[in-house]
Amino acid sequence: MSFEFKGQKFLESDYGLGRGYASSLRLNFQHHLLRQLLGYSIPPDLVSGKGLPQTPKIADVGAGTAQWLIDVAHEFPSAELDGFDISGNQFPSSAWLPSNITLTELDITKSIPANLEGQYDLVHVQLFLCVVQKEDPSIILKELFKMLKPEGVLLWVEYDPTSFRVISPHPSLKQIANEQHLHIICGPEGRPIEWPSKLPQHIEDADFDQIVTNKHPLRPELYAPFMQCHLCAAEEVSFTAMSNDGPEAQGPAFRKLLGEVYEECKTGVTMAEDIMVVTARKPPRNQEAMLVA
Q: How far is CA 100 from CA 41, 133, 152, in A?
């Protein structure tokens, strides 16, 4: 994934977002907005019937501040919950976590340890736009597949950048800054990141089956808070992934644009998007053996 501003590319290989207390606050806020939009931590159809065992073992990859796991801990107090992230800098203190949550550093873009293979009834992934590189989630999907038990469930929640759009309550309102911001998000080639919209196919290519995709457009009352999250994330990127060696440098210039975007947002102009929820299952053991053969 890479973007361009003022003739310079950024986020070509790095995560780009911060890991301090302000970034953690953004992650926590973002989590609760997603929960408000979706209405669940785990889709109800995965919980009822043959969805999950009574005492499931669940992993959250890219756990961040562990808010999703904390919600799940209250919903499934008998579950064994493991959170993984490449950095533990945003993990809450274990002293204040529910006793069934364990947090561990793990780079999911590398081969997972053998002791994690075939361990989980459900693996959850959320908002990996800044993690997946070169429009290719196949390396990550391979490791997620290995983590699951036969018939285990993958649950992936993701922004769909192909749905990003500027909207306005009235055509007379100024939206130049929002349009420029959207153009930057589309990247140097002028098109949005496409791998999330193709995620079901990527998942099928990774040998999962029973793939189900649901799209959740933002409701109007969520436009403003989601946009505020976007602006906070963009500001983080301006400090961590852009040059800041003078007032005319890439970072300060981008933050100036973000201020202009926010002023337009006060009038009702904003960016909207769809959230994708994709679920899939690892095949049963006998079918998995056939795939390997």
A: 17, 32, 20
Which tokens go with 155? 């649950």
Residue type, 172: S
Chain centroid to Cα 267, Å, comes to 28
Give CA–CA dist 143/235, Å, rounded. Answer: 31
With tokens 């793939």, the residue in question is 211
- From first to last of its 293 residues, the chain has per-residue pLDDT tens of 444 444 444 444 466 788 889 999 999 999 999 999 999 999 999 987 677 998 999 999 999 999 999 999 999 999 999 999 999 999 999 999 999 999 999 999 999 999 999 999 999 999 998 888 888 999 999 999 999 999 999 999 999 999 999 999 999 999 999 999 998 887 666 678 899 999 999 999 999 999 999 999 999 999 999 999 999 999 998 998 888 888 888 899 999 999 999 999 999 999 999 999 999 999 997 665 555 55
Pairwise CA distance, residues 132 & 146, whole Å: 18
